[in-house]
Amino acid sequence: MDLTETKLESPIGPLRLVATDGGLCRIAFESSSADLAAELERRFGGGRIAESGGRRAVLDRSRRALDRYFAGMPEDFGGIALDAGGSEFQRAVWAALTRIPCGETRSYGEIASEIRRPRAVRAVGSANRVNPLPVVVPCHRVIGGDGALGGYAGRADRKEWLLRHEARFPLVAGSAAQAAEQRRTVSTRSRVL
Fold first, then answer.
1. What is the mean predicted confidence (pLDDT) over 95-115?
2. d(Cα 193, Cα 188) in Å, to the nearest integer?
């Protein structure tokens, strides 16, 4: 399978974006070329990095959306084709993550209940850990049931930065009271703000 790759400088460090013909398949934090190549080999078996107009267009849309997000503009990433792979369970978890509104958090237990697997809290954590599309599929918005940040494959300081960043986003529509409620919800549920 052919893949196309680009790099993006961001406030949380350099990101490497990779696309297949099906869409954006990986956002990697500072991983070495060898590590990323090994991961892509496991996922796609024999993939090679090559240019393609279609894949390049996906990467360009992804870069623009991420640039807007890091500039402080709420972004739903809905216009980006995704090719996350994963098991049926993982895809269900990742889909639930995309429904967490920007500036809010959910617990692992809440995600497990949402996907109708209330006893699968640990499995939800595992699916979060292997999410191939951090930021776009916002696994950073998932916290422990006690409000603790919990782990983050991209490092806890990045998770904290992303949550603080999103807490400052302007509301698309609403009053000052709604904005205050949104900030309160984020701060009390994540205990880092």
1. 95
2. 8
